[in-house]
Request: fold
Amino acid sequence: MLRTSVLRLVGRTGASRLSVLEDFGPRYYSSGSLGARDDARDARAYFTTPIFYVNAAPHIGHLYSALLADALCRHRRLRGPSTAATRFSTGTDEHGLKIQQAAATAGLTPTELCDRVSEHFQQLFQEAGISCTDFIRTTEARHRVAVQHFWGVLKSRGLLYKGVYEGWYCASDECFLPEAKVTRQPGPLGDSFPVSLESGHPVSWTKEENYIFRLSQFREPLQRWLRSNPQAITPEPFHHVVLQWLDEELPDLSVSRRSSHLHWGIPVPGDDSQTIYVWLDALVNYLTVIGYPNAEFKSWWPATSHIIGKDILKFHAIYWPAFLLGAGMSPPQRIYVHSHWTVCGQKMSKSLGNVVDPRTCLNRYTVDGFRYFLLRQGVPNWDCDYYDEKVVKLLNSELADALGGLLNRCTAKRINPSETYPAFCTTCFPSEPGLVGPSVRAQAEDYVLVSSVATLPKQVADHYDNFQIYKALEAVSSCVRQTNGFVQRHAPWKLNWESPVDAPWLGTVLHVALECLRVFGTLLQPVTPSLADKLLSRLGVSASERNLGELYFLPRFYGHPCPFEGRRLGPETGLLFPRLDQSRTWLVKAHRT
Ligand code: ME8
Reply:
């Protein structure tokens, strides 16, 4: 057999302090208007994760994708009621050869395997606080209707034809591979077998008559779409990669398999001898969720943000937009791409026995703790390595010590005996820096802190928009450090409430620190919802005061009334985040030998 051609189709074929502050007044208002910023333009938003294969239990990589989508969606909802029209879908991908084979290996029917593993995903996402509005399973009847309708549209537009496909197929990755992407791996008996160069999964040679999609027609439309939408694929390096792929040949794509070979899937309408290719089936899930083919889907499409791992970029950035364009629809608005988690430097895999179970991690580190860890440490642009010491170290230092310690310092009865939000004294902390006078107590660094926290909501929003959530958390963490520095500098525990000289300044120090904490709590809601709730409740911030649209930081500094001043703090409910005991939380040690 000639194996040089991959796809053969036969047939029909540092400003000064003053300038920082000059800049700062208006920002006070702009942070308030964050919610209204682009209401009219994109009031609806639809976030999706990949739908996950049910051949194995979920791992931390799957949870990471869902958390990224969850944080984006929660941040979006926080912008205010006018942007509350969000949808967020996740689900399980249940058809295809991979599932058919996994069920046979497990001695189960495909339906039994799908029910069992899909349930694991649903439980995990519920435990992890994934605020999805939809969970789709591709074995649902509504999905079959959507896929068959979509197929019919492609067919009616002349984009499907019958031809013979001959080439490599990787069942694990459910994809066709060109010869250049296949290599040989030595087998246990000195023989060798062909595997995918990228994933290392075995491939097999396939030759059969299939339906073929005229993908090659879409090279230029895809290039035009990407060139005129430079933010379509974020972060930028992935956008660039896709454009590079499009410079290469784009052969037509086989979009069905013989039913005798693949029975576990959706039949081609009008031709039961063929089953629809699992990737075409899976991608249409994004339409099924929003009601396709009923017209209602149009109010959500294409206001869509797909969150995906880099392993499935080609399917989402080339095949999917081409299918959509072929069906007369727009490509999705944004595709957010992230890299992978490795474990102690190795790829996570069942055969290496190093798969990290996310449910165990949620139990050990708490839901908020583990959410914070994955989102704070996960960097979309490159792979991140997981090991337990890293989790314990990060959570103890940033959540328990820095943030929890700060809250404790400002609310402890010893320092804040009235348990209120004390008054801010404008003579101790005048809005103009550099003033001198007997009662002026604020120092230059204090103005820097105020400026940093005032600009934080906008900075965080920009990081979310660029899909750099870890940078948003880094910025929050840096402000928490600055606020601790502020408290340390002015040592409120050395000031005396009884002294008429100390009292206004003591109140001001606590007021500023509590205002900073209120901003941190508000901004942390998308990442650590329960911890943020605990923090904001302790500060006495009501549910209606937690939106980004309401986030007027330190209004007294600008001569505006502060609704919190004089308000009683909420009840004390214990440590914000109890320190973790390193020795009791090890799952995966670094440098395991
Ligand atoms: O590809 N680190 O499903 P899948 C981070 N069903 N994320 C990871 C990861 C890791 N080590 N491993 C997996 C499929 N992921 C198809 C998708 S969508 C229409 C069909 C995440 O179960 C990441 O999001 O193999 C990756 O893209 C996805 O899980 C693949 O999940």
User: Anything to note?
Assistant: The first strand starts at residue 10 and ends at 11.
